[in-house]
């Protein structure tokens, strides 16, 4: 059976709260910058300009997207921790991927940004109580849905692995 190239690790499936799962997802957040760095190691500019799938973003766009997305995630968590059920701001990720900074700024800037954001993000959330994970919420207006911080943690842990797998799967397919 052929894996859907859009979802090389499958789609996100929410999980019930457990301390073991929390620790695993927190490590996914903590180690994402290193995982992305390892995934792109030794790729040249032509390879980085290759879409990860037909009709998909180039690896450059993908890396800048992860930085954009995780900056938003960090802010969403901070709002969820400090405000009572705040409405978070959605953004048009497709439009962001076409902005001039994605075309002109080297990916090492976004890699550096990921290291900084993930260091702050992990520090902000690593000591949340089990109750905070399950009871603190945000509202996502685009999905018209209230989400717990637990749900967001799982979603962004998945997002980290999802986009890393886009890179590693392309490398395997191309034998890079």
Radius of gyration (CA) equals 16 Å
Distance between the termini: 23 Å
- N-to-C SSE string, H for helix and E for strand: HHHHHHHEEH
Count up the helices.
Answer: 8
Mean pLDDT: 97
Output the structural class: mainly alpha
Poorly predicted runs:
none
Task: Give the helix level as a range of percent.
Answer: 55-70%
Largest sheet: 2 strands, antiparallel
Beta-strand portion reads under 5%
Strand numbers in spatial order across the main sheet? 1-2
Number of strands: 2
Shape: globular
Salient structural properties:
8 helices, mainly alpha, 176 residues
Question: Helix and strand layout, with pairings?
Answer:
Elements: H1 19-40, H2 45-48, H3 59-82, H4 93-96, H5 100-104, H6 107-125, H7 130-135, E1 137-140, E2 145-148, H8 149-174
Antiparallel strand pairs: 1-2
Helix pairs in contact: 1-6, 1-8, 3-6, 3-8
What does this structure look like?
The protein has 176 residues and is mostly helical. It is built from 8 helices and 2 strands; from the N terminus they run αααααααββα. Strands 1-2 form a two-stranded antiparallel sheet. Helix 3 packs parallel to helix 6. The mean pLDDT is 97.
